Amino acid sequence: MWLRYGLEQNNQLVAIEDVPSGKINLVCPYCGNELVAKKGLVQEHHFAHASDTCYMVINPALSL
Predict the structure, then answer these.
(1) CA–CA distance, 38 with 20 (Å, rounded to integer)
(2) For residue 58, pLDDT beyond 80
(3) Among 54, 1, 17, which residue's Cα sits nearest to residue 32?
(4) Which of 7, 21, 31, 63 has a CA-to-CA distance to 56 between 20 and 30 Å?
(5) Does the pLDDT value for residue 25 go beyond 80?
(6) Measured between alpha carbons, how far is 53 from 48 in angstroms, rounded to an integer?
């Protein structure tokens, strides 16, 4: 599962399509850790955790 949304400081969700690639000022909506926008040519565009991945992201029952 790919993380498609990050959370701004004002608690607004932001889609991966609306940000540039690389380090951004968004956090994971599940755990609050910093995110990085991955927008390469091979895989689907998605957010990744800047540090360890939270396990809440891989739980499909909590999908956004």
Answers:
(1) 9
(2) no
(3) 54
(4) 21
(5) yes
(6) 8
Residue 21 · residue 28 · CB < 8 Å? no
> Torsion angle, CA of 60/15/29/9, rounded to 10 degrees?
-170
Which of 19-23, 32-36, 59-63 is predicted with the least confidence, judged by mean pLDDT? 59-63
User: Does the pLDDT value for residue 60 go beyond 80?
Assistant: no
Distance from CA of residue 48 to its chain's centroid? 5
pLDDT for res 52: 81
For every residue of 27-45, DSSP letters joined together read E-TTT--EEEEE--SSSPP
For residue 11, give both structure tokens: 């608690």
How far is it, in rounded angstroms, from Cα 56 to Cα 36? 17
